Write a sequence for this structure.
């Protein structure tokens, strides 16, 4: 389905019945990465799996920013009158979720983020320079966004008062020290490292994620 928000057409899949959950994918992906998770959640929840702008079937744009993508999700929630959803965001989706919880503190009931950074240098050096090489070769807007954003301050993270679950793989591209600082700055947060997993190995087309996040609900 499509909905007009913030000047673009945003594609989303709505499945199931019950309390609302919004799923946000990472950079260069689309909602299909959650195919297994959606089936596991749909028996108890209304699941909204969104294609971010310039991803999947949503509108293509020339420039990207996490703040604009956050505004898309805020408009999406308002247009559909979704009451206090839980938001789960992976990677870029987690960044969007953090920004939404900062700028619209009353819009979500709970937040779960996986492999999210709050500054560009939260990623390890290997991934950073790989992304830099990609941008220099292609001038890709998605790569540029990773190199220059997000830029959240510690004092902004402290404004997130809803229950928040911060996840990362033990072998994530997000530095472990950065993930720990992220959780430490969010007052009502729980931190969990998933042993033996990488950035998205327990998330993308995986049946593992549901069993990790379900107790948090």
């Amino acid at each position: 389905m499509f909905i007009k928000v913030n000047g673009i057409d945003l594609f989303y899949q709505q499945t199931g019945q019950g309390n609302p959950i919004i799923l946000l994918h990472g950079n260069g992906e689309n909602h299909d990465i959650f195919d297994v998770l959606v089936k596991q959640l749909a028996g108890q929840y209304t699941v909204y799996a969104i294609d971010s702008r310039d991803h999947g079937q949503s509108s293509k744009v020339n420039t990207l920013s996490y703040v604009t993508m956050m505004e898309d999700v805020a408009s999406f929630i308002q247009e559909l009158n979704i009451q206090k959803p839980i938001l789960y965001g992976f990677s870029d989706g987690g960044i969007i979720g953090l920004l939404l919880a900062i700028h619209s503190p009353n819009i979500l009931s709970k937040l779960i983020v996986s492999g999210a950074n709050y500054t560009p240098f939260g990623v390890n050096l290997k991934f950073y320079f790989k992304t830099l090489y990609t941008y220099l070769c292609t001038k890709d807007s998605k790569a540029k966004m990773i190199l220059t954003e997000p830029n959240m301050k510690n004092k902004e993270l402290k404004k997130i008062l809803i229950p928040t679950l911060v996840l990362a793989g033990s072998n994530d591209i997000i530095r472990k020290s950065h993930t720990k600082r992220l959780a430490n700055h969010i007052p009502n947060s729980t931190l969990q490292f998933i042993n033996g997993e990488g950035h998205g190995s327990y998330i993308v087309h995986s049946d593992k994620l549901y069993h990790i996040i379900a107790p948090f609900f």
The chain has one domain: 2-212. Residues 84 and 109 are 5 Å apart (CA to CA). Residues 2-212 form a domain with the Rossmann fold fold (CATH 3.40.50.1820).
